[in-house]
Amino acid sequence: MTTGKTRVDAKKLTDFTIRAFQKVGVPQEDAQITARILVATDLRGVDTHGIAHLAGYVRGVKGGRINRKPNVKVFSQAPATATMDGDQGLGFVVGHHAMMEAIHRAEKTGAGFITVRNSTHFGAGAPYAMIALEHDMVGIAMTSTGLGVVAPGSVKPAVGTNPLAVAVPAGKKPPFVLDMATSVVAGSKVELARREGKSMPEGWVIDKEGKPITDPTEYKVSSEGGLLPLGGTPALGAYKGFGLGVLVEILCGVLSGSSAIILKKPPEMTYCEHFFGALRIDSFLPVKNFKKSMDEMIEAFEALPTLPGARKIYAAGGYEAEIEKDRKANGIPLHFKVVEGLQGLAKELDIKYDL
Amino acid sequence: MTTGKTRVDAKKLTDFTIRAFQKVGVPQEDAQITARILVATDLRGVDTHGIAHLAGYVRGVKGGRINRKPNVKVFSQAPATATMDGDQGLGFVVGHHAMMEAIHRAEKTGAGFITVRNSTHFGAGAPYAMIALEHDMVGIAMTSTGLGVVAPGSVKPAVGTNPLAVAVPAGKKPPFVLDMATSVVAGSKVELARREGKSMPEGWVIDKEGKPITDPTEYKVSSEGGLLPLGGTPALGAYKGFGLGVLVEILCGVLSGSSAIILKKPPEMTYCEHFFGALRIDSFLPVKNFKKSMDEMIEAFEALPTLPGARKIYAAGGYEAEIEKDRKANGIPLHFKVVEGLQGLAKELDIKYDL
Q1: Is residue B344 part of a domain?
Q2: B242: which chain A residues are within 8 Å (Cβ-Cβ)?
Q3: What interface predicted TM-score (ipTM) does this complex get?
Q4: What is the 3-state secondary structure (H, E, C) of chain A?
Q5: How far is B353 from chain A (nearest CA, A)?
Q6: What CATH number corresponds to the domain at position B163?
């Protein structure tokens, strides 16, 4: 797990991240929020969406593409719902406030749903959905992304990888946390295969003639060819993955008053939209009963017999909870290229490097 | 489209269905609700979930497994949410009332979410989600089903095909209507292949050793082997389809105070649970703007270039809207076996047959 990698303490990594954002003018509280989400993502093993991209976010703020002090506005016409304008702020900060807004509304009415326009990349969805857990709520987070996933029957990208995340509390067992791109794989999986010199299975990406690409160096995000929607081929349900991708596009892009990515022109394409939801469990049934029933279900899944090669059956989030336990105790293993990147960033910003 | 099939008028089919349910003691209003949903399903081309199963529902009522006059109860702790007990009534009737309850709550608070226990099979999910359309809302419907879908890495069924449906209004274009099993295919697709003597693609079903089954006569719902979750294999995202299936299980089975199907014993397994939601669009942005933006997105999808063999790119529900137009004008094509079944039912119940 740690070959060619350095274990880094989560607390130190958080402090380093806060320093980096503060140095480019992000207020302390916002820097703390962002650092917490980025490090939480790495703690759960989602190395593609966390600290590895820190420099990109910091440079986005430094260069002015991301607004360091956004004036986030909430427009509400009803107790359970609202629309937010993120004022092109850091997606982490905007997303955190929107998720908290959903939770506050669910506290009052049982349900809270917030659509957000004019935001920027918020990392992974799970950390937002998971804020709901400590409030004994079901949490939901979605985001629109750049164009890259083809419609079944076409080779032209129609939607983004448009991930959706849902977190549900359990009792003794780890929470159910589903965080999935609505494409077969997220673009970062292709990047990973490229970095590691591995080939991709057929069914991830097609070229401009609709033929599978297995060499990751052959794939570039372009106007023709792209990632396949979950399901892959029409016979195996690609219209379902595409439908889910379009649904995320609707709840984020259309409902927020922005638009679907397929209609955007630069510089609109720089910004993205999110959708957050919270459902208060005790407005449906006693939390204690719910958690007991969740535990029983998860235990039944874990007791399922496994095929050769499969170690254990998990409910979504169970595997990530095991990784988190290890990384909290032993540090987060960072790839040497990520470490080099952080060292370079420290030099560029003239901040202390102590990882 | 009509080979070996008889075109039947939707109005006549509705009236016949009402007669059948009234004859076994279902109150007129409930018979009307049920008939409307069943025929709406056939009108949209979903022949596997509509009138073909009429006899099963009617006999369920006749034999007492389905409660003809349920005392449906609503338990509410908050303005936007509620839990319902369906009292083992017809899933169509219980589902209709629950969806209306979600809509009434969304009228007041912007969002409405209802979980339902102790119900029975409600047919397809789309007709419930689509009730929201005439209220300018986003509609959501989910249901738990019988055990049949394996967890990735196991050959033992862990969840049902657990479909989810979402309907979103558009302006001039047909509404977005996604209605999908969270498995690669619904069990009825296997039935269809069996009836038509066709083989199945690899990736639909595995046997008790985890090997693909392509002969539909070899597959029976049993304790080992089963339908694959959407994604199919772990490398192509099966954990996503499984995660979605478990999510439906949670929102229906666990949240309603019933339990996950994996824990149920007979006779509990006879009954199922649902989950409904509604989001009021004008609590987020003006309906007019929303519908215009939906139309623009759908038109952009329809304008995408197609691969050889693909006629046109649709947003979810677009193809079904074309079928509906044809069937409303020219009647619903019923397979001769379905017609025979309806004739037999008419005889059994001693009701008028005029289709």
Answers
A1: yes
A2: 316
A3: 0.97
A4: CCCCEEEECHHHHHHHHHHHHHHCCCCHHHHHHHHHHHHHHHHCCCHHHCHHHHHHHHHHHHCCCCECCCCCEEEEEECCEEEEECCCECHHHHHHHHHHHHHHHHHHHCEEEEEEEEECCCCCCHHHHHHHHHHCEEEEEEECCCCCEECCCCCCEEECCCCEEEEECCCCCCCEEEEECCECCCHHHHHHHHHCCCCCCCCCEECCCCCEECCHHHCCCCCCCEECECCCCHHHCHHHHHHHHHHHHHHHHHCCCCCCHHHCCCCHHHCEEEEEEEEEHHHCCCHHHHHHHHHHHHHHHHCCCCCCCCCCCCCCCHHHHHHHHHHHHHCEEEEHHHHHHHHHHHHHHCCCCCC
A5: 38
A6: 3.30.1370.60
